[in-house]
Amino acid sequence: MNFRAFAARFALTLSLCLLTTAPAEARFWQCAPYAREISGIDIHGNANTWWGQAAGKYQRGATPKEGAVLSFESTRRMRLGHVAMVSKVLNEREVLLTHANWSRRGGIERDVRAVDVSAAGDWSEVRVWFGPVGGLGTSSYPTNGFIYSGQAPQGETFAPVQVASGGNTIGKGITALVD
């Protein structure tokens, strides 16, 4: 094979490789790996395990904070739960979330609205913007609370965190212990 034929084949192969390489935005994302990447919270596994895994490793609570991850409980329709990072706090009952695999399989959504619809105002139930309807969906979802990106103090136990309105225990009575 002469040099020209080799160069032509090489160029063709390279261009085919470049055409099949998808940019990072086109990547198929699951919610848990995406939340881990953008929040810095180093928890692995399905979203429904994040709340329990965070105990003793990260502080948890019911107050939304930028960079925190909102942990959704498992439901019949959402068996593996869901996790989403808070990108902005709008007020005590409304935040913007950045997350993956919600409105479109594998898709990323940035700064979508989520509203606390719980009776106690403790973020135990939320409604989230849903692309196909162009607004808040009609379903509400139970949540565990927020996992904060700063690590929990090592070697200490912390008492249940009290919510400013009503003094309810965070995490539905769960006291987080640090190993």
Question: Would you write up a description of this structure?
Answer:
By secondary structure, this protein is an alpha+beta fold. Helix content is 18%, strand content 30%. The protein has helices at 3-20, 31-39, 50-54; strands at 58-61, 69-72, 82-91, 94-100, 108-116, 125-130, 135-136, 141-151. The protein has a six-stranded antiparallel beta barrel with strand order 2-3-4-5-6-8. Strand 3 (82-91) and strand 4 form a beta hairpin. The termini are far apart. The model is unreliable at 18-22 and 152-179 (pLDDT under 50).
Shape: elongated
- Uncertain segments are 18-22, 152-179
**Mean pLDDT value:** 81
Cross-sheet strand order for the largest sheet? 2-3-4-5-6-8
What percentage of the residues does DSSP assign to strands (E)?
25-35%
What key attributes describe this structure?
179 residues
Short description:
By secondary structure, this protein is of the alpha+beta class.
Write the layout of secondary structure elements.
Layout lengths: L2 H18 L10 H9 L10 H5 L3 E4 L7 E4 L9 E10 L2 E7 L7 E9 L8 E6 L4 E2 L4 E11 L28
Antiparallel strand pairs: 1-8, 2-3, 2-8, 3-4, 4-5, 5-6, 6-7, 6-8
